[in-house]
Every structure is written in structure tokens, then in C-alpha cells.
Amino acid sequence: MSPNTKRAMLGLEEAGLVYEHVPVDLMSGEHKGEAYRGLNPTARVPTLVDGDFHLWESNAILEYAAALAPGKRLGGENPREKAEIARWMFMGAAHLSPNVARIFAHTIRLPEDQRNPKIVEDARTEVDRCLVALDMRLQKHECLVGDRVTIADLSILPALANAGMLRIDLTGFSGVVAWMERLMARPSWKKANG
Q1: How far is CA 155 from CA 6, 51, 129, 184, 186, in A?
Q2: pLDDT (tens digit, 9 = 90+) per residue, 27-80?
């Protein structure tokens, strides 16, 4: 269910790279074991292993996948496109994803006596701020950077994929909803959610 793992897998799929998906059992604490921490000292998923190169952080994996497959045009092709991609990826990493995670933690993951409704309320406000910006863009464009899928789209989509389960109201964001439907119809999404 990790949005971060889905993000990385989407990038690998869209780049057309051959890879082996090796599940890490978070429930048993496998990610905290010595073997996994040798690959990723933060003990988080995902981690990409390419020979002796170990890369963690899902957005970094997206950047790497795009660089390995320049013909797929997943990364920016000029300074403005690169800046646009960075804008959406940084917004996702700094604002959208952490607040979606807070909503998940305080509505589903934590025991009820540890849930804080104020955290959920504040997180929903921040998610809505992100949705306004996304929708303004997606009312005018098929994707976040023009009319082709880039790593910006692949970075944002997993954070919103469970909006219904988390009761994140997308009713007023028709551009976001249509964009999500388009991306979720792609083979890469189906494979990452296999």
C-alpha cells in the first residue's frame, strides 16, 4: 500500500526499465533489519538497487528512471519543464503527501485513543490547498507539465490514489479527477497496483 513504493514502480514501468520487485515485509519489521538497513539506512521503502548503487527516496528513483530512459520524455526537456516538474514534485513531497499520511494515520492506522481530529482537520486544509493548485493546472492541461505524462504526474498520483478511503473530497476538483482516471487507466498503474 505504500504510495512511495507505487511512485517508484510507476517510474520504472513508464521508463520501460527491466526490474525485479522484491517485497519488504513492513509488518514483520524486515525494513528495520540489518540487511535492509545496509541498503537504506532510513529503514523506509522503497530502495532501488542497481548493481552497487543503492538509491532511496521515491522521487529520486523517479528522477533516476527518467534519466535512464530519456527517449520516454518523463523528465524535463528544457529549464522551464524541469522547473515545472520540480515544482509539483516538491509540492507533493513537502505538502500533499505528508498531509495525506497524517490523515491516514489519524483516521485509520493509529488506535482510536491516539487519533487527533485537529491534526486531521489541519491536514485536510493543506490537502485542499494542494488540490486547488492541481485542479487549476489540470483544467487547462492533460498532465501537470503540458500534455504528456512526466515524473511530476507519477510523483503526485499515488498520494491521491486512496482519496475515497480517506474521505478526501474531490467533488470540486473535476480536473484532478479526470487526470487521475486517465493515469489510473495506464498499464503502469495497473502493474504497480497488481
Answers
A1: 9, 24, 17, 13, 15
A2: 898 899 999 999 999 999 999 999 999 999 999 999 999 999 999 999 999 999
Distance of CA 132 to the CA centre of its chain: 18
Separation of alpha carbons 54 and 36, rounded Å: 11
| Cβ neighbours of residue 43 closer than 8 Å, sequence gap 6 or more | 31, 32, 36, 37
Looking at residue 26, what is its pLDDT? 87
Among residues 50, 9, 10, 4, which one has the least CA distance to residue 31? Answer: 4
How many Å apart are CA 61 and CA 78, to the nearest integer? 20
Helix (H, G, I), strand (E, B) or coil at 102: helix
What one-letter code names the amino acid at 153? D
Say if residues 188 and 128 touch (Cβ distance below 8 Å). Answer: no
Contact 6, 59 (CB under 8 A): no
Instruction: Find, among 88, 75, 101, 57, the residue nearest to 14 by Cα.
Output: 75
Residue found under cell 522547473: 83
Cα(119)–Cα(96) distance, integer angstroms = 14
CB 150 within 8 A of CB 188: no
